[in-house]
Amino acid sequence: MGDVVTFVLNQHLATALVLGIFGVMGLIRGVRRELYLSAAIALAMLVVTVFGSGLTEPVNRSYRMLRFVREGGLSAQDTGTLQEIRVQSDLIDSPRAQDWFRAGIFGFIVVVGYLVGERFGGIVFGLVSRLLGFFVGLFNGFGITYFLLPIIFPEPRALIEVPTGEVQEALVRPELLVQMAILFVFVMIAFGLYSATGRARRQE
Amino acid sequence: MAPIELFFGVLVLIFGLIGLVRGFLRELGVTAVMMFVLFVLHLLEPFLDRGVDTVMAMGNGLVETANHGAFQTWLFVIVVMIIAFVSYAGETLSYGGYGPGGPLGNILGLLIGLFNGYLIVGTLWYYLDKWDYAIEWMGFSTEQLSVQAEAMIEYLPMNFLGEPFLLGQGLLLYLSIVLIVARVIR
């Protein structure tokens, strides 16, 4: 184990870290926006609990249907396509996949709630709004962690292995550098368009 | 003869200087057009190749077989150059409004100019390479390529941005959509 660096994160630090992130987000976003997120979290929990397992079958059916259509549907040249799709495994075919599916629905509703809050939550004024936002943010962090933690880390102890050597190798790949350069150009384009003024084309 | 990477590198730098002078928003119009045209050329590449081959076969008596590569290279080089000329000459396609001024505007103009240079010059290089540098008087050949030049070919716009990225489509499509949407919004 000489070439492995070990970091141990105890439960207090891990909880404080996660809740702290959500708290800071609440501090920045303000209480009104955070309340939209709280409502979304409550709705997501309700939807996942009531409908979560019932949605598995329709999703699997739709997945097979889409595969059939993609392979050519009724006009496919190969008549064995339907049989092939029939014997293939489901999209959600194990308890673990079901857990991830439920987490996906939960995450989707929470993200929508976050965006709705951003859109309709108004501008943050004053310290009180921010402080309240901080506390509601902590509460939201607790709700999200409470729901997602057993799915992401089902075992009582998690060892996260970060292949730092491979990460370093991946970071110096020429393809990644070119991709980063193109991404940078497009970020600068977005920034330039944001900084540009006036909509009308220049009259010259 | 200068190495091909140096030759095309200098051309890209010239495009950067042109971008510096023309300004960010005008250059962005060129980027949008070139990106979209490259996407179309990439999408239609198999059909265009087949079509050109058919035409070449029909006109076999007129053009020497040995010059087919040069003919095809010239054809695509001229197409790219005409599109580049049109997008640089016209005002219709430039983005509306006034770009950021001062040093920021200069930096953005230079950056987008360099990017346009990469798109245009890189595409010309791609077509030269595709037909093994068939335009002989330019003095380039596959055997003379340096290690750097061979490595760079992989990153030419048609190769790199055309490579499937998401849902079987390359970055050319997605970046074209982003630029066209931005153009419509402005």
Model description:
The complex is a heterodimer of chains A (204) and B (186). With 204 residues, chain A is an all-alpha fold. Chain A has 8 helices and no strands. The longest helix of chain A has 27 residues, at 126-152. Chain A starts with 10 loop residues before the first helix and ends in a 9-residue tail after the last helix. The mean pLDDT of chain A is 82. Chain B is an all-alpha fold. Chain B has one domain (4-185). Chain B has helices at 4-22, 24-58, 68-89, 102-130, 147-153, 157-160, 171-185; strands at residues 164-166, 169-170. In chain B, strands 1-2 form a two-stranded antiparallel sheet. The longest helix of chain B has 35 residues, at 24-58. The termini of chain B are far apart. The interface between A and B is medium-sized, with 21 and 27 residues.
Determine the N-to-C terminus distance of chain A: 70 Å
Give the C-alpha Rg of chain A.
Answer: 24 Å
What percent of residues of chain B adopt helix (DSSP H or I)? over 70%
Cross-sheet strand order for the largest sheet of chain B: 1-2
What sort of overall outline of chain B do the alpha carbons produce when their principal axes are compared? globular
Q: Which secondary-structure class do the elements of chain B indicate?
A: mainly alpha
Number of domains of chain B: 1
Number of helices of chain A: 8
**Biggest interface and residues each:** A-B, 21 and 27 residues
Key terms:
heterodimer, A: mainly alpha, extended, B: 186 residues, mainly alpha, two-stranded antiparallel ribbon, 7 helices
List the helices and strands and how they pair.
The complex is a heterodimer of chains A (204) and B (186).
Chain A: H1 11-29, H2 31-51, H3 56-70, H4 81-87, H5 95-120, H6 126-152, H7 164-171, H8 174-195
Chain B: H1 4-22, H2 24-58, H3 68-89, H4 102-130, H5 147-153, H6 157-160, E1 164-166, E2 169-170, H7 171-185
Antiparallel strand pairs in B: 1-2
